Amino acid sequence: MKNFSILGYGHIGKVHEQAIRDTENANLISIIDFNLPSDLDAITYSTLESFLQEDTTTDVVVIATPNGLHREHAIRCLKAGKNVFIEKPISLNVADAEEILAVANEKGLRVFSSMQLRFSPVVQYVKKLVENNALGKIHMVNVQCYWNRNRNYYKLREWHGTDDMDGGVLYTQFSHFVDIINYWFDEVKCVNSRSFNFSHSDITEFDDSGYVDFIADEAVGHMTYTTSVFNKNFESNITIIAEKGTIKIGDQYLNQMLYSDLKNVCCSNKVSTEQKNFHPEAIQEVSDALFRKNESILDGKFAVDLVKFISAANDFAKENKLHQMNAYEVSHS
């Protein structure tokens, strides 16, 4: 059994708390945040500094603070001798992500990232199809994420909507979908991107919608995303078009098999699950990996690949906006 402490007790911190309590090989030691409730069944600290000075039993610190603080908090914990389990994204740029791993390597410690949708039975099923070449040559991969994030969402959390703390919708809302493409394929590379702000221009410092073109091994990939859907989330899905089949999985947590037509493969419709929360599986994976000292599908190196992809997408989007602006100025000069 490994001992966990949680840094940050907002919405996602509470999710991790319950996941730790629900996992047999994990034990919750403490929670670190200011203005914590007085009835928590854990040791509480109001600052990270006091925790790092006094704690002697924590094996893993769950970093559940705003995105823009992940680098600082992770490195401080690593330098104090703690392994870290960082909520997605591991950081908001590649240099920070690589620095986190470098410090961990120097200290002989582990970095994990919260990429819990990898434990969805549907995601695992498609992973095995790809690994076993059951789909043959994969031609296309399409990702669609049509969500709603209204004004109240951004008002509830003051750090949401900012470039330096939030980082944008690809990081905060849709990074799990990018991660699953990284999980299924050996080499995923962003080759182009465009972004737009349809309904949040007076709310966020970044665009709310866009598309990304990518290559996944030899397959052509395309992702369309938005947080501007009217009223509520509409749908999320990933479709694979391949030589020996077509498959579509979906729901916000990628726990549903929506369509399957596969050559010489049956019963794929049975892999769907009503389970949506895979955080306990992630906590168990981290605890097991530390106990057995084996590699993990949550290792930080995979989280760096995610940051590389989204950073490239954001860079392409900015370049295309600049080209469009310059073209407009030339045409009207």
UniProtKB/TrEMBL annotation:
Stretches assigned to the GFO/IDH/MocA-like oxidoreductase domain: 123-247
Superkingdom: Bacteria
Domain Gfo/Idh/MocA-like oxidoreductase N-terminal as annotated: residue spans: 3-112
InterPro entries hit by this protein: Gfo/Idh/MocA-like_OxRdtase_N, Gfo/Idh/MocA_Oxidoreductase, GFO_IDH_MocA-like_dom, NAD(P)-bd_dom_sf
MF terms in GO: nucleotide binding
PANTHER family per the UniProt record, alphabetical: D-GLUCOSIDE 3-DEHYDROGENASE, UDP-N-ACETYL-2-AMINO-2-DEOXY-D-GLUCURONATE OXIDASE
Name of this chain's protein: Gfo/Idh/MocA family oxidoreductase
Naturally occurring in which organism (per UniProt): Faecalibacter macacae
